[in-house]
TrEMBL record:
Keywords: ATP-binding, DNA-binding, Hydrolase, Mitochondrion, Nucleotide-binding, Protease, Serine protease. GO terms for cellular component: mitochondrial matrix. It is found in: Mitochondrion matrix. Belongs to the peptidase S16 family. Homohexamer or homoheptamer. Organized in a ring with a central cavity. ATP-dependent serine protease that mediates the selective degradation of misfolded, unassembled or oxidatively damaged polypeptides as well as certain short-lived regulatory proteins in the mitochondrial matrix. May also have a chaperone function in the assembly of inner membrane protein complexes. Participates in the regulation of mitochondrial gene expression and in the maintenance of the integrity of the mitochondrial genome. Binds to mitochondrial DNA in a site-specific manner. Residues 54-84, 723-751 are annotated as: Disordered. CDD domains: RecA-like_Lon. Coiled coil: none annotated. Pfam families: AAA (PF00004), Lon_C (PF05362), Lon_lid (PF22667), LON_substr_bdg (PF02190). It comes from Sesamum radiatum. Its EC number is 3.4.21.53. One of its GO terms (biological process) is chaperone-mediated protein complex assembly. This is Lon protease homolog, mitochondrial.
Amino acid sequence: MLKALTRCSSLVPLGAHLRGYVPAREPVSPLLRVPRGHNRSPYLFRRFFCSDSTDGSDPVDPAGSEMKRVEAGEETPESKSSSAIVPTVVKPEDCLTVIALPLPHRPLFPGFYMPIYVKDPKLLAALVESRKRQAPYTGAFLLKDEEGTEGSDAEKNVYDLKGKDLLNRLHEVGTLAQITSIQGDQVVLIGHRRLRITEMVSEDPLTVKVDHLKEKPYDKDDDILKATSFEVISTLRDVLKTSPLWRDHAQTYTQHIGDFTYPRVADFGAAISGANKLQCQQVLEELDVHKRLKLTLELVKKEMEISKIQESIAKAIEEKISGEQRRYLLNEQLKAIKKELGLETDDKTALSAKFRERLDPKKEKIPQHVLQVIEEELTKLQLLEASSSEFNVTRNYLDWLTALPWGEYSDENFDVIQAQKILDEDHYGLTDVKERILEFIAVGKLRGTSQGKIVCLSGPPGVGKTSIGRSIARALNRKFYRFSVGGLSDVAEIKGHRRTYIGAMPGKMVQCLKSVGTANPLVLIDEIDKLGRGHAGDPASAMLELLDPEQNANFLDHYLDVPIDLSKVLFVCTANVVEMIPNPLLDRMEVISIAGYITDEKMHIARDYLEKTTREACGIKPEQVEVTDSALLALIENYCREAGVRNLQKQIEKIYRKIALQLVRQGAYIQPVVGAQVQPDDVKAQSGSVSNETAVERVEAETVDHTIDKKESGNAVEAEIVDSSADQIPTSMDQSGTPEDTLEAEKTQETQAAEKVEKVLVDSSNLVDFVGKPVFHAERIYDQTPVGVVMGLAWTAMGGSTLYIETTPVEQGEGKRPIAHRCQGHIAEKDPENPFFGNTKLHLHVPAGATPKDGPSAGCTMITSLLSLAMNKPVKKDLAMTGEVTLTRKILPIGGVKEKTIAARRSDVKTIIFPSANRRDFDELAPNVKEGLEVLGLSPMQSESALYYNASVGFA
Ligand code: ADP
């Protein structure tokens, strides 16, 4: 098809031309060069033949007969009224000298039109001139290719050639061509008869003398000739059939074929074939009709092959296109069906739309590099197959990326007074922590923004580390997120997994940001001292990266793969033992230790916080219950002696649960009396717990004093109720009261019963009924420590505690080696006569060994215990001590002063001996902690005698 179209570059439909069709010089696109539907044009036939039915000759065979006439020279064109051939006075056969017109592309065959562009102005002028002179003929000769040049190059060069040079470049055999029209530089020619150049007449424009050529005589009836001609015709027919471009033309063609002469058939075949110009020139030059037919047959056969290939190509492409179209159509239908069924969610476009919808409101706040990654992933999502695993990975990734609160901050509270109010509302005491938070807010207020910080709250369990964290978040108006890192050994928990792993998840921090929805939350990292040791990677280092203010502005989560800014996050860590926190982490923290509470503080906490919340949680009204101070005190002293208040909270909850049960039972006790007159004894029998019943009885007994009047009046009310309801209910039943009536009656009974319920009183005397026997045995084993026993002070993860150090002689006798050289020194100094350490074998014991104690600070206590034994004097009453002693008799400071002091107070110690270096720690303690305590200091530079002195001060 392409070839056929290319052919048109030289064989343009005359009709089109006449109607203003101006062909381009170079075939840019063959399709563009052929006007649509031109093959239906009435001028179609004229594109090939100069004569048609309009020339007034025999309509059946106009071309053939005309050509015959032209060739035979029987008739001159001017004798006809042809619209195509301009009538001239000069007969073609008289044209023996012609202007030579070079044809760059193809030779012109007799009977065909050809438009050409004449660039040489002189030549053009000569053609115009000759047309005017009524001798509108010219010789059209194919241009030979110059060696090394082709196509347009050859065409360009030809305009520079003149005279002999041009003559040499022309094929000798050409066509006498009639000039039918000249428009601008476009000249339309019609081929007439074959010519051969004999000599040059003039140079510019090249004019030559020519011979008119005729076919060699042939026998029309020659079978071979006939057969060859028919073969050409039938092949042509096939070509015309397969090629849609020429199909219409086939009909017109067959109408005329009958009168086609053999040489004409050959010319026709060669002219419409896609053969190259040399092959066409060969046909033109061939004067032997049979040979010419054979040449043409070759060309048209080749054309046939080409059109077959063309057809198969077209078919293959068509099939491919229709396959794709079908797929597209089915896909569109599927989409429509999914939409109809509401299954659109997994649809890629719906997904992208969802992500974009999430992005749009915060687009300005998202950092550029993140936006870029999101865009890339969105594009990737579109390209991936929805069922592929990578699609899911990308989808999840995008889900995380778009869900994070980029640049979203909650409005922080910079109001110190308001913050203080909130903090006090939630927690009693904890002044250090509260002060620090208020400072933080104040700085934030002055600066206008608040930076992230790491605060570490350390202390024994139950002192409110976690709950104050929540309260701080409330005070600062930040979102709160808590995660515990106790035992965490997988770095991926903090830093996230790489996306390539199946089930990969981002780290805790990214999860936190997603769940809180702001970029400045308060993150409580619980149990940081119990961070596990990882086998692959170190969780402590990962924590460091997360917490370090220097690094966390660009925290890189493995899953997210884009840096996130955590610099505005306020981290609060909690720990029991600060020493267990990895050093680099501790370095970056601001540690606030919460030592624990003394009895007085616990009372406040219990009264103002724990009781209140527990009461509300149990649905008990304040007027329904009274827990006396003595009960609370007993509870704290005998049941909840540990540093924190969690156990106290549990005990209070226990009390209130029991109270709740009692209140409900009292209601149940009254109701049956009112309704079905169940005896109180039955109720007692039904209730399982004896202690509960006794508790009720006791409560009743104890409240007698001050509620006696109330009770009496209550009883009167009860009696009244009994009477009236006893009368009323049966009657209403008799009258078969509606269910509504019964319901209403029950309701009134209930309200009356509630009014009736007594106030439950919890006192120290009945406390046992609520919380059982005291589980906590006093740390104090001795009222007055015997000889060889001294109370020490220890620090544990659970807070401070007191402990005894006991020493007894095991064996006495000459030569038994002492175990304490330093004590020997003391004794030698103060009591040289004392042989105790020289000949006594000793046993030193620390009771309650199951409790872990820190070793060094017991040094002082041990020495005193030994001395006490040696001197056979007990130490002073209510004395406890702590301090490390070196071998060179130096006293070193110890840790946990506050915890130890609190523990000492709990054990009713009145005098404490601390190393002097700890004096400052002691002085800093809250007054209520120090109250009533006598403190003696042991200087680090003190000699043994001073230690002895101090110890002896302690002796009773
Ligand atoms: P921790 O985290 O230190 O182990 P929690 O924060 O879990 O302790 O506290 C245990 C309970 O004690 C919480 O219900 C808390 O409200 C309460 N609590 C602790 N300290 C105080 C306090 N100073 N004032 C009021 N309640 C407190």
